[in-house]
Amino acid sequence: AKLAEVEMHAIQTSGNCIRNVTSDHFAGATKDELMDPRPWCEIIRQWSTFHPEFAFLPRKFKIAVTAAEHDRAAIRVHDIGLHIRKRGDVVGFEVHVGGGQGRTPHLATLVNEFVPEAELLDYLEAIMRVYNRFGRRDNKYKARIKILVSELGEGEFRRLVEEEYAAQRPQEKIDLPQAEIDRIHAYFAPPALAEKPATSDAFEALKAEDPEFARWARVNLHPHKTDGYASVTVSLKPVGGLAGDATDAQMMTVAHLAETYAYDDIRVSHAQNLVLPHVALDDLPDVYRELKAAGLHTANESLITDMIVCPGLDYCNLANARSIPVGQAVQQVFADPDYQEDIGRLHINISG
Q1: Which of the four pLDDT bands, split at 50, 70 and 90, describes residue 65?
Q2: What does the alpha-carbon distance between residue 290 and residue 285 come to, in Å, rounded to a whole number?
Q3: CB under 8 Å to 156, separation ≥6 — which residues?
Q4: What is the tens place of the pLDDT at every residue in 268-282?
Q5: What is the rounded CA–CA span in Å between residue 80 and residue 75?
Q6: Average pLDDT for 101-109
Q7: How many Cα atoms sit within 13 Å of 116 on the Cβ side?
Q8: Where does a domain end: 187, 214, 247?
Q9: Domain range holding 224?
Q10: Domain end residue (candidates: 158, 187, 216)
């Protein structure tokens, strides 16, 4: 009940079901997106929650949606990855299936280049039915849809999906009410951002005065689609720390910053950092000072020390090794911020 009061829940967060639907952490704020993908994430979430046909799949299932040129949602390493496209005035989805990481990494296969938005849920049902019918249940290590796509082959998997889709009867089709689509889109409407000049004297002055701030601005800020604003990545990867962890005091600091400067919006990226998506350039000096006071000012977003580190044996009884110390050791080798920037964008994921 407490989670529901703040629009959160823990439904389908484990088990062999459709666990989560994720998107670009800069969605609705970034310049390079065709449209905000979050309304469709919510539509898919509602469709998949308590879906009686897909409550006991062969294995867990995850879906990602993006509408940006740069795929920050990592759709091709998800069970289903959707990329929003347009053909003329028609919005649709490029559908990728069978991505995954772990011990048998696969990039998802392009199954359909364009599914119109009105047909998306029906097409997803066809994919899920093929997986539910043919996915392996005899070996949990071979039960993910990536294995099914690989074993059947791209052509045969695509044929089965199209066959299942064509066999859907009219009464099975999902007629999503336009009023509900409009309601969900309205919920994700962008905040009413105050009009700002495209540049900020205070922001530029502090960059010139403080090299650490200049580095943070260079590395941890993302261009906003509205002039005078930026999206801020709050790195949870201090060198030598626990990757992705934050204390209660640090979380309170981020909450305060969101309330004061970021229109009450906090995002969690799949890289296990936090994002304040709508911050005025004028406010960035104050935001940085508060982050620095809380130990949250590490400037390493998407650099080599910004690692995703599975807890491993420290927390998980399925693990083979302690991955946290390995991550910390790698961070120490590349601790020099100049060295990290010289290397450039580089992602390391460590699993135990």
Answers
A1: very high
A2: 9
A3: none
A4: 999 999 999 999 999
A5: 7
A6: 91
A7: 6
A8: 187
A9: 201-350
A10: 187
Residue 196 domain flag: no
Residue 343 lies in a domain: yes
In this structure, is residue 195 part of a structural domain? no
Do 142 and 222 share a domain, yes or no? no
Residue 103: which pLDDT band, with cuts at 50, 70 and 90? confident
Place of tokens 């938005």: 117
Residue 350: both structure tokens together: 């460590």
Average pLDDT, the chain: 96
Residue 142 has pLDDT above 80, yes or no: yes
Q: Which residues of 211-247 are buried (b: 16+ CB within 10 A; e: fewer)?
A: eebebbbebbbbebbbebbbbbbbbbbbbebebbebe
Question: Are residues 178 and 233 part of one domain?
Answer: no
| pLDDT (mean) for 100-119 | 94
Total number of domains in the chain? 2
As beta bridge partners, residue 223 has 230
Chain-centre distance of CA 89, in angstroms?
Answer: 27
Which of 168, 183, 206, 185 lies closest to 36, judged by CA? 185
For Cα atoms 280, 284, 289, give the angle at the middle one, nearest 5 degrees.
150
Q: 262 with 179, same domain?
A: no
